[in-house]
Batch of 4 targets.
Target 1
Amino acid sequence: MGEIPLSAPQDVKGTGVSRGLLEDLALKILYLNSELSIAELGERMCLDMGVTEEIFQFFRKEQLCEVKGMSAGTHRIVATSQGKTRATDLLKINQYTGPAPVSLMDYTLRVRAKSVQQMQISAQDLGRAFHPLVLDEDICNRLGTALVSGSSIFLYGPAGTGKTSLACSITAIYNDLTWIPYAVEVENQIVTVFDPGVHRESRDPAAENSDRRWVLCHRPQVVTGGELSASMLDLQYNEACRYCIAPLQMKANTGALIMDDFGRQRMRPEELLNRWMTPLDRRLDFLTLPGGKKFEIPFDVIVVFATNLDPAELADEAFLRRIPNKIKVDYATSAQFAEIFRKECEKRLLDCDDRVVQQLIRFITQEMKQPLAQCYPRDLINQIVWSSAYLNREPQMTVNALEQACRNYFLPAAKSRAATP
């Protein structure tokens, strides 16, 4: 998995971003921290000493700071009254005080270097990523083909068949890491990208001696469902802090963006599809800064549309052409259902008798008139565990316990849909 470290810039020019932006950022950080050494300032900005020393010399020349002493061989500085006035004015314009940003060009090059369309994927990679799931060979082959393409996927089929679990296993296929910047500079404005709720930081040694403005992460996975709105796909301007937050697709670059329960979002399907016609086709997206200026970013992400609705009723033919992979995920066979049930019991350290499982399958399909959805083993075992906790006894997978779990879980057969043959 080992990544090559990114070279850290040794001077302001090497950062690729404007000198003025770095100086303003450093002054805000100094003001808010009262007193810092040059090394501590570099730590907060994720910059090496060569860069912060250059900024310090500018501050001293412009009388924005004064030296209070030495610490571990570096100057300790505070903002002068002139520096404090300047810093408070800057904070009224923009309150970002995090790590220094990278340039838009550097961000674009780094995304292209880790493009999802350049990945080599084998059957072994799928087997490793999907090993907790029970899938037939046809589904595995179709998923493998879709992922090699690096393009988007429709996963459709009845509710409870494991579409979301499949989608959420996709990034585990990639046995490598990617660099995510804390922030990107665009037209002298800050766009934050790194999100600890989305990006899982790696402990790879390459991160220790690299440009600290980048975080070495596992490939990102962003999941959104019914809460999705149009604003989440554009730059989100933080009114209080006055800087921009990257939209979902930018956070997901080099990874996967999963649209769960597609067709049930706050954003109408046709609105979303129209918004992404060009990105899906050209793999480029266009975002708009608060002042109205547009800029281009890579759209290098596998978008997975997971739905239990008919894709043909959600999108027109022109859009469906731009999603070349359409994979139906159907109910489990009896053998698959039994295997899923066995794996779920193993995970919970519960004994599982195959004769009991076969009786459960007959009860679900013949008595309850239900299909064998992949989610039922987990949900029915939950029922038994909850009941056992209430009764203060160890959970047991008996025929009676499972039949009672079914009665608690399913609607009466007369009110539920009939099982498929």
Target 2
Amino acid sequence: MNVLIVEDEIPAAEKLERYLKKYSADIQVLQTTTSIDETSEWLKTNQSSLDLIFMDIQLTDGLSFEIFNRVPVEKPVIFVTAFDEYAIDAFKVNSIAYLLKPITFMDLSSALQKLNQMKKQLGDNTLNEVVAELSQRQYKSRFMVKVGEHIRSIKTGEIQLFYAEGRTVYLINADQRKFIIDFKMEDLEDMLDPKEFYRLNRTFIININAIDEVLVYSNSRLKVLPKIGFDKEMIVSRDKVSDFKDWLSGGNSSNSRT
């Protein structure tokens, strides 16, 4: 098995390589890269020789999710990071495992065993086909809501936005009707297609087709105006402006959690 290690901390990379060799003498580390730029360039010309990627998330020049925006990553990825807040974003790409530093040999063994188990379940498929299976993500197509004593099904594509008031979360459909749903905002992020829905801040998730205008707001923020009548201000926080613009223009936004 040929492996790429993406890690900007040399001791951590060396430790990972020692564990890999301990796990199997057949594992070969082809390259260790330390930045988004270096990794993207290396993958453009060498990815075909790879079987698996180990990837830190916070690199010297930003979050490694940017690599997926620059080059099609066709191999399975095991993320190794000191931070737990990126887990949902990791599983929106080719991740098969999410290991928290400092990793142990048991952590590594479990992740590799999981990969081998996936291969067995898929028969004789290659690692590339495992990734294809991972990529065929099924997002929620309908939401069930209660209307009086009745249960109604609403297609996800008809939902204009979701918003939270305290612990209560609502959806608004194309008819501008509001319904309570039994999900947290964090749950919705993992259920919704990130190409169609974006979490503007802690309170709002909007459908791209529901946006009427985007206005420049104070302190380098953006204000989103929906096509439907809605009396609450939807503000894109300053740290998400760049990511939101990328999503709006059709880029592969990571849609980071707030």
Target 3
Amino acid sequence: MSYTTFIARRQLRSRQRHGFLSLITLISILGIIVGTAVLVFALAIMRGFETEVKQRIVGTTAHVSVFHRFDDGIVDWQPIRDRLASMDEVEAVAPFVYYKAAISSGDANDGVIVRGIIPDREVEVTRLRESVLGGNWHMDSDDPDDHPILLGSTLANRLNVVGGDEVVLYSLRGEALAEGAPPRIMKFVVADLFETGMYEYDAALCYITLADAQRLFLLPDRISGFQLKVSDWNRANTVAERIEGTLDPDLYATDWMRMHRNLFGWMEIERRWAIVALSLIIAVAAFNIISTLIMVVMDKRREIAVLKTMGAPSRGIRAIFMWQGSLIGITGTTIGLILGLGMCWVQKTFSLVSLPAEIYFIDSLPVIVDVRDVAIVGVVALVISFLATIYPAGRAARLYPVHILRYE
């Protein structure tokens, strides 16, 4: 161990001649502990919410979707489906019809997005089976003449309908509005309700059979596109690009991240600024390090003079105080990381912080610890602590022994 490290450690452990200096040192360490722990816990919460949102989106939207560039729909789609299903990393393919319509019940009217599906194929690419509340995801009906429909729970509440009630869909697709053409009307029976936990889906989405959607939107033997499930949903963008390269020019492929890039872009910006904002807590503690070291330099001027008289170079004096400040940062950062990870473990294990399930559709604060986030927090705290030592250490190194010993 070098003499600079030895003196720095001894100086940090020893009681100062003025108890106030020890108190300031303790406050500096506590400040770094609090800032580091809060930053780790906050980033884990943000990562948890982001993962929760991703899972809910992927549960309702397939990993990759293939669309027609125009409104005409895809004709002769069965060979395309078979070709997509044979591609590498593609596990399942489901055709769908997707369009907007109006919906009404006996009590209310609303706009709605209609998705026409083949239920047995849809559950292979999304989590429709898990989100249907009553389990009737296959849309069975006692009357073969009924047209079944699945409604989002929020939409059903707005329309004041439950399973077995009737609703009416109105479509204007393909009609010349300028000529006053009436909308096409189809009556449906609510087979069940679904709840994804995403308001935009639960409040504005419904499912009907593919055949009923083709009839309602004047798409005989046509579909809007395909939904694909791939082996790794994090590679969906790569798979989509490869698929698009094999499709006809009138078709294009997009992945779930691109379809919701505004949402995930906002989350990424929020996480970055959270790191900046919460790092200010550590910066405040760093100012305490600066003030502590400056006061130590003023209090230890005679000792500094003696060391220089004995031959210690200026860089050695500088190293002593930089080591002392760095040890404060290392101690605070280490304890803060352990405390932050401990808070995450407690929340994940015991769910101490609960959330109103009727608003968030989850009953506790989600926490996911990412090693990269922990590493970033540790590096930020150590760098800020180290930078805080530069000025006081430089001031100590510039002291002249002859001036100190002459006037003291």
Target 4
Amino acid sequence: MTIISDITVPARAPYSATLKAGQTMRLVDLESQQAVDALFYNAHDTSERYSVQDTLAALAIKGGKFYLETGAVLFSNDSRPMLTITADTCGFHDSCAGACSCEANTVRFGHETRFMHACVENFLSELDKYGMGKRDLVSNVNFFMNVPIRPDGELTVADGDSKPGGYVDLRAEMDVLVVISNCPQVNNPCNGFTPTPIRVIISE
């Protein structure tokens, strides 16, 4: 494998890159328990983007999996494969809990959190570079985030299980624009209450 790019994304920061078909992006949780929120778009037609509905439906056909793990294919809203998880040290990744926002912080954690930085703001700052905005926000994947389902069906955020140096590999099945928020959340345990840097390696 030839490394195309190898960077460290600071805690709380956004990042974006375009993966060419066949290239692999490795997300590395450097210090453990760091949630990495990600959006995916067809690099040539951003109206085609990641679809949690198509992805989970495909997983259900293969046995009813709720979490993304090695072998999972991430599908677009045109039901086309966008990426495949080819390696994974964590064992599960969430695609239902969504991204934190200032509004959600206020509802969940109190009005005093209203102006805390959040993933939606990171996403919007990166999307603006590509001529996109709020209308282009779609369902995201929360890599390394532990979101168990309670017996009553409620989603809850629990302590992350990823270890220092844990990683997930995503192989692009088409040219994909990847937009990342290295999650800044400090009000729940998705980052162990302490956001930390991640490493992003692109190779082919």
